[in-house]
């Protein structure tokens, strides 16, 4: 069984999607996106600067567009038995699996990026990658700290990203290092994604999600909040709303997909970060990047 997986923020690079534009179907979708967004995001993706591409209102739609347009150009070759996306990638997965239209997916991603940006500006906050500790140890230490700090991204065994206030992250990093973490590395991000500090963004995005039509996908979508497969549109909506303040359970998602029969993981979008994370869960499973013949 083939699982298609879609990357999140951090996978972007200048030049992404440029080769896709040579396909008429892709070019039309990029131009449609430029119109919806109100500026030529394709120009920034293909030949902008790293600084331009790093802006949240550019990064999130850029990764989404690369992933979704690649899936659309694959055409009949895109035959997923199951899909999942890491954080932002969940929106790409839903469009690729026909649960969301291209236009609605893009509009939600723009709304998400803007809401997250506002939440970041309202309260200084950050994230940190914790390497070499068991998940339950990280969870226990975070729970004991008297400041906002929570597990946010369960990326693979031995790699958990925590998220919270600057004070909470600093305290947690010190305690987790004492507890034997190989590294506690603060990340260069603008805010505490997938934590309670994203509540204002969640409220803002909830209205947009509730107003958007979601159809039954062509295959099960494994969602971040609980790593389980969904096909019911109302459940998918509810999980999408919870996603901004809930953890990304990627380790568990990959484990569940393997348990449900996945024999091959195909990454759709820029980079190959997710393939590396899959390999940390199972060395034997086959991984590849989606490519146009």
Mean pLDDT: 95
Count up the domains: 2
What is the CATH architecture annotation of the largest domain? 3-Layer(aba) Sandwich
Taking all Cα atoms into account, the compactness measure Rg is: 18 Å
Q: Would you give an account of this structure?
A:
This protein is of the alpha/beta class. It has 2 domains: 2-121 and 196-289, 3-Layer(aba) Sandwich (Malonyl-Coenzyme A Acyl Carrier Protein, domain 2); 125-187, Alpha-Beta Plaits. Helices cover 47% and strands 17% of the residues. The strands form 2 sheets. Strands 8-7-2-1-10-11 form a 6-stranded mixed beta sheet, with helices on both faces. The protein has a 5-stranded mixed beta sheet with strand order 6-3-5-4-9. The two termini are 21 Å apart. The model has no long low-confidence stretch (mean pLDDT 95).
Give a summary of the structure in a few sentences.
By secondary structure, this protein is of the alpha/beta class.
Helix and strand arrangement:
Blueprint: E1 2-6, H1 24-37, H2 41-47, H3 50-54, H4 56-74, E2 82-85, H5 89-96, H6 102-122, E3 125-131, H7 135-144, E4 149-156, E5 159-165, H8 166-178, E6 183-186, H9 199-210, E7 221-222, E8 229-230, H10 233-243, E9 248-249, H11 250-259, E10 264-267, H12 273-281, E11 286-289
Spell out the key features of this protein.
293 residues; alpha/beta; Malonyl-Coenzyme A Acyl Carrier Protein, domain 2; Alpha-Beta Plaits; 2 domains; six-stranded mixed beta sheet; 12 helices; 11 strands; 47% helix
């Amino acid at each position: 069984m083939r699982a298609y997986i879609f990357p999140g923020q951090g996978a972007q690079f200048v030049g992404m999607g440029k080769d896709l534009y040579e396909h008429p179907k892709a070019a039309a979708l990029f131009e449609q996106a430029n119109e919806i967004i109100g500026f030529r995001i394709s120009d920034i993706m293909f030949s902008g600067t790293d600084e331009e591409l790093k802006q949240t209102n550019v990064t999130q739609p850029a990764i989404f567009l690369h992933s979704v347009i690649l899936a659309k150009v694959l055409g009949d070759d895109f035959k997923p038995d199951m899909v999942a996306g890491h954080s932002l990638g969940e929106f790409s997965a839903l469009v690729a699996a026909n649960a969301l239209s291209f236009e609605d997916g893009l509009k939600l991603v723009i709304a998400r990026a803007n809401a997250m940006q506002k939440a970041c500006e309202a309260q200084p906050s950050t994230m940190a990658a914790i390497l070499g500790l068991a998940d339950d140890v990280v969870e226990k230490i975070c729970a004991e700290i008297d400041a906002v700090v929570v597990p946010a991204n369960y990326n693979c065994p031995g790699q958990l990203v925590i998220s919270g206030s600057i004070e909470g992250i600093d305290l947690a990093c010190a305690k987790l290092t004492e507890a034997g973490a190989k590294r506690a590395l603060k990340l260069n991000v603008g805010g505490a994604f997938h934590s309670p500090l994203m509540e204002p963004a969640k409220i803002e995005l909830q209205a947009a999600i509730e107003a958007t039509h979601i159809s039954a996908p062509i295959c099960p979508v494994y969602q971040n909040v609980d790593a389980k497969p969904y096909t019911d549109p109302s459940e998918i909506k509810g999980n999408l709303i919870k996603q901004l303040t809930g953890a990304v359970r990627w380790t568990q998602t990959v484990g569940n997909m393997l348990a449900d029969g996945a024999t091959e993981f195909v990454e759709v979008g820029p980079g190959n970060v997710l393939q590396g994370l899959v390999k940390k869960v199972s060395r034997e499973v086959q991984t590849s990047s989606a490519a146009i013949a």
